[in-house]
Specification:
The longest helix is centred in the last third of the chain and has 40 residues. This protein has two domains: 155 residues, Response regulator (Rossmann fold, 3-Layer(aba) Sandwich); 46 residues, Arc Repressor Mutant, subunit A. The N terminus is likely disordered. The protein is built from nine helices and five strands; from the N terminus they run H-H-E-H-E-H-E-H-E-H-E-H-H-H. Helix 5 links the parallel strand 3 and strand 4.
Amino acid sequence: MLNRRAALGFRLRCPEADSPARFKIMNERGGILIIEDDADVLRAARIALELHAKRVELAASPEGLERRLQNNVFDAVLLDMNFVSGVRDGNAGLDALVRIQSFDPSLAVVLMTAFGGVALAVESLKRGAVDFILKPWRNDKLLAAMSAAMNITHSRRQAQTQQLDALERGAIERALARHEGNISLAASELGLSRPALYRRISKHGL
């Protein structure tokens, strides 16, 4: 008799998914969080992704979501839409999506939904999810979606870093100008030690 996972139609291996070059980027970044209440689906997703990601963490529900995000660095989240048996309105998934976005706006979220939930998934895209995967999935499609999501997260975080660098550079330039290049006074105004200010000056090429 086919086990439940096979009956669901998940493909645990496929030629495209096993291409190391195509998904090399997934191994170079932090990790993936999978949130799904069905143990078989959770296991299938883990098997599909764990060879191509640096780290895969599993959660059976969004409970304690903020704590997980605070204690770990993730580059993408694979999120189911429903977590209560018999409930198919997707509100739990939408709520989790909002919580993720509130905690870390840069973190890209891919939704999982059954075929009948496509309209809900499309609505979720409008609310900020980057993609959705239909269950049962093809592993190559899942891997492509998660790889793209990790790239989006990386690009967002890179942009944030550049913005912070620009703000820091501007603050240093203004402090130095106000104190006519006096490092001690500029450092005091910025709340930095002289060595720390020198390091930042060198970093920004000032």
